[in-house]
What does this fold into?
Amino acid sequence: MDPRPARVVLLTPQGRRLDHAIVAELAACERLIIVCGHYEGFDERVREHLADDEISIGDYVLSGGEPAAIVLTDAVARYQPGVLGSEQSLEEESHAQGLLEYPQYTRPPEYRGLVVPGVLLSGHHADVAAWRRRQSIERTARRRPDLLARATLTPEERRWAEEATAAVPVGVARVRRIVLMTDNIDRDAAFYATLLATDGARTAPGQHEFALGPTTLSLLDGRIAGLPRSGVGHDRGPEPSRTPIVFSVPDLKAAHARALTAGCSWLDDRIRRQPTGLPLGGPADAGERGFAARDPSGNALVFVEER
It folds into this structure.
């Protein structure tokens, strides 16, 4: 039997949520014993008398603790000598400094008109390091602003973060709410909950809202709101919007999969790169990747790549 003292870690949803600091803490232990349960978990006496620590890898349900044990083992193993080719990798990767990692590029420097940022080809190591640092800060500010509270930033770097999240300068009008008409609030609320991966909230009998950063997407049921109907005999619901709402997303494939699951009334069969503009009349930069769709009420939507 190994005589070295062991720290017994119980994997449970009730434990401390795993993060970079906890991984580093566990990696410093001489020996770890990971206890993972299955289905209903553990006898309470295991928790009270055998475990030294309780760890959770996130707020979701697994059939057993084995996948969680693999996650924890892999994260801790990276700190052991010889596992990584360079110890510097530990400090440069996401979360090591409380920030998300900067964008990565490889060869060739240009591919189908897509080019690597010039600073990375300059050969000036200080400029490259400064660019990467700013990119990490700006990306974290936009995608994980909660991480910035724990990051060590200079006043100038704080300003970078503020500039990255500022929609428009102070004193200029901001877009607060976008309203989409629907002829079935329950159906369309469920549709957008799946499409946007957030439930939103029913703020009135005929209104459901989704907070999307500084802008709110508001679904308004024309039947309940008493708005005039369109069509011969007034037997149709509100006229759908023909001008698309353009969403930017970090993962187009995931967004397209959600759109397929949500049940669009029409959906682009694939993600495509637009030479001049997106379909349905949506403005886009040349070369922007995205796809178009229509919600169940027929409103036009376009999804483009966030970057």
